[in-house]
Amino acid sequence: MEQEADAVRAAYISKSIVDQNHPKAKSQRFGTRHKSKSLAAVTHHTIKDEIRLRRTEIDIKGNIVRSDVGEFLKSQLCLQFGLHPRDLRKIDGGFSNQVPVILVRPEVIIVNMGHIRALIKADLIVLFDSPDSTDRVEDSPFVKYLQERLKMSMVQAGGQTFEFRALEAIFISTMGSLHSDMEILVKVVTRLLAHIEEEVDQFKLKEMLQYTKKISRFESKALLIREVFEELLEQDEDLAAMYLTEKKEGHPRAIDKHDEAEILLESYMKQVEEIVNVVTMVKHQAQSTEDYVNAILGAKRNQLLMFELRIALGTLGISSGALIAGLYGMNLQNYLEHDPHAFAIVSAFAVSLGATLFGTFVRKLRVLAVGAA
Q1: CA torsion angle 57 60 65 71 (round to 10)
Q2: What is the model's pLDDT at position 47?
Q3: Which of 190, 283, 301, 356 has a 20 to 30 Å separation from 207 between CA atoms?
Q4: Least confident piece of the model among 162-166, 259-263, 275-279, 313-317
Q5: Is residue 127 a contact partner of residue 145, using CB atoms and an 8 Å limit?
Q6: Where mainly located (predicted)?
């Protein structure tokens, strides 16, 4: 019995070894191992807790205390500034199609407006930029202007605290950029419209089409910035929470005590509205010119159609006369060959028939053209 059991055990072990060496079994075993590695890689990529950007910190005295480029832990940034992970999407340049935003958090104000992305605290402002940027932070016109404003005393700044001076510097830079872009667009588009109204040129029309698209994009950009101001002005809690310095000192503002913040936001919202109005007016002028050009092109097209119809009617009249000539050109006796007046009579009839047909259709065509006008 023991010998039989040993024989069965040996057969089972040999079968297991054969099954493991089978190609299909190897592929399944190695496929599982590769699959587990790929899943681990995907999981590692999914939970990656890093954000790459250039970070510049300016303190309450207007001095640059830190400026570096690298990978920053999202969890560390959230812990340092009291943010939610979703808030970092507003300053992460890796997300495309970002819209302007001003978010008020308990300890920080998040600003993404135009070319500026920043976090504003009661005594510190952090600027974020693309890590691939080669410009020096110290040479940036905005950073220089921001430092000048932050170095002002409370009296020189009109009693504004640190956070409002930083905010106003961002607003001034954004408005300046919008004004500059608007003036360039308005100047070029106005010049193109004047040329097109004098003479419809194909190249000018193509150029006008490109600038019309630019105007639409600029208008959308300005409207989004205006919506940011409007939404913030409707939130009393956020307006009161913007007073970070007083909150840090232990004197948070009441919900209905935010006159300074409201006045500041309203003043710059009016500037954005003026820009939007100018751009909208120029856009309407471009649309009016487009309608004018379409009307001219439509009239030219109708003239060409009328000309083609007149040619077709003239061809019809000539063909009708040629038909009679063709009938008499057949080698058949018609007893008119020897008549001395037959040629003149037939020719006059053919010409009269063609002229009558042409005149009749031209008159009807003219009546139709007058009725359509």
Answers
A1: -20
A2: 41
A3: 301
A4: 313-317
A5: no
A6: membrane
2-21 and 23-46 helices, crossing angle to 10°: 60
95-104 — which CB contacts under 8 Å span 24+ positions? 99/224, 100/224, 100/225, 100/228, 101/228, 102/228, 102/229, 102/232, 104/232, 104/235, 104/238, 104/239, 104/241, 104/242
- Is residue 226 within 8 A of residue 269, CB to CB? The reply is yes
222 token code pair = 């300005």
HSE-up of residue 253 (Cα within 13 Å, Cβ side) = 19
Helix ranges (DSSP H) in 199-258: 202-233, 236-241, 244-248
Measured CA to CA, the distance from residue 271 to residue 168 in angstroms comes to 13
Find all residues with CB under 8 Å of 9, minimum gap 6, and list them.
none
Which residue, 17, 7, 291, 271, is CA-closest to 283? 291
d(CA 85, CA 314): 79
Question: What's the token pair of residue 44?
Answer: 């590692």
- Specify the length of the chain in residues: 373
Find the mean pLDDT for residues 101-114.
91
Name the token pair of 93: 């340049």
Positive or negative: CA dihedral 274, 275, 276, 282: positive
Q: What is the mean pLDDT of the chain?
A: 79
Nearest-10 crossing angle of helices 202-233, 162-198: 150
Task: Please tell me the pTM assigned to this model.
Answer: 0.70
* Chain center to CA of 242: 31
Four-residue CA torsion sign, 235, 240, 244, 250: negative
β 101-104/64-73 pair status: unpaired
Q: State residue 231's pLDDT score.
A: 94
Confidence of residue 268 (pLDDT cuts 50, 70, 90): very high
Among residues 232, 331, 215, the alpha carbon closest in space to that of 280 is found at 215
Would you state the pLDDT for residue 300? 81
DSSP string over 148-215 = HHHTS-TTTTTT--HHHHHHHHHHHHHHHHHHHHHHHHHHHHHHHHHHHHH---HHHHHHHHHHHHHH
In the predicted model, what is the mean pLDDT of residues 291-303? Answer: 82
Where residue 106 falls among pLDDT bands split at 50, 70, 90? confident
Q: In sequence order, which residues have a C-beta less than 8 Å from that of residue 303 and are 6 or more positions away?
A: none
